[in-house]
Design goal:
With 142 residues, this protein is mostly helical. The chain has a single domain, classed as Methane Monooxygenase Hydroxylase, Chain G, domain 1, CATH 1.20.58. Helix content is 75%, strand content 4%. It has a two-stranded antiparallel sheet. A hairpin with a 5-residue loop joins strand 1 and strand 2. It is elongated and about 90 Å long. The N and C termini lie far apart (60 Å).
Length: 142
């Protein structure tokens, strides 16, 4: 059973490292969202997906270990505390990024509505008569 103990500790340490990397990416995402760099954002999201897949595999392995005789030691308790703190920090950073995305979408919708409203204004044609210009936008939400 000492092998399970060591393997569990290795898995938890690796999970912590992956969560640290996710936390770093979440910070980079905030900067990229503010710069509105979609290409770089797509790269980061792809990298993030790879890390999440790795975490899923580690978690499945951790759950498959036989834990009957493993006694929690100080190492596990401290690592658990660190993982919990890091997960909370990551949650807060992701919440901020979510709000930045929401704000960007609101601004885009506002701009589209302004353009759409302007597109429907009356204009003069060549004969000096007032003509109604049709809007070029389609409401995809309808």
């Amino acid at each position: 059973m000492p092998d399970n103990h060591d393997r569990l500790l290795d898995i938890l340490k690796k999970e912590y490292e992956l969560y640290e990397e996710l936390y770093k990416i979440a910070g980079e995402k905030k900067d990229i969202l503010l710069k509105e760099d979609i290409d770089q954002l797509a790269e980061l999201v792809s990298e993030e997906e790879g890390l999440l897949l790795e975490l899923k595999e580690l978690e499945e392995e951790r759950l498959s270990l036989e834990m009957d005789s493993i006694h929690l030691k100080d190492e596990f308790i401290e690592l658990k505390k660190q993982l919990k703190n890091l997960a909370e920090s990551l949650k807060q950073r992701n919440y901020l990024n979510s709000k930045l995305i929401d704000n960007s979408l609101s601004l885009i919708n506002l701009n589209l509505n302004l353009i759409k409203d302007y597109g429907g204004k009356k204009i003069y044609d060549k004969k000096g008569l007032v003509a109604q210009q049709a809007s070029a936008f389609i409401n995809k939400r309808a």
